[in-house]
């Protein structure tokens, strides 16, 4: 029986990428994953709707509402976050994609993340300065959360130098940790609402995110769990440290 040698060119075909035996390939495995990352379906929808760039304005808006801040203040906080946490990093992402600096918004290659991390950190710094400058008319917790959204990307960049963890699971677990941390004794008076919201994020939305990123082939389980651990633990630690410092 004659066996045909498998050409390396066939590894780039959708048939190879979609083979049932190759459904669970990490994005840094050395194999092309373009077919997997372009998959359109529930996994793609979940991943896009819970994009890390969409979470800071949502978290800050909910936090502002829970604090009972005036509508005008909530609008200012949310608008500033939308501009610097979401719109600018998203625009930079599409610019880098258009000019070939990255191959996918999912950033499957660890080495391609550094430049976007840098731009995002700069934008988050401006957001922190803007929100921190208005603390007297907002609330110290707003500045604390804005600082979390600055410090976490910096640490994420350092981690990314050696290991590519999932930004999606890190950001979502961080959001859950923020609302969970606000219910812990000695930090705030928040109780039922934020606790339920935290459990919803951590026990319902986070498993969905794990499934979607794994289904898309963007991450291995180790990378997904690494994102969860780093996002959650860093945020809880930072909440307590910033609360002591403030």
UniProtKB/TrEMBL annotation:
Keyword Ribonucleoprotein attached: no
The answer on whether this UniProt entry bears the keyword Membrane reads yes
Membrane spanning segments where? 49-68, 74-96, 116-135, 141-159, 171-188, 194-212, 224-242
Domain of life, source organism: Bacteria
Give the record's keywords alphabetically.
Membrane, Transmembrane, Transmembrane helix
Which protein are we looking at? PAP2 superfamily protein
The scientific name of the source species is Fodinibius salsisoli
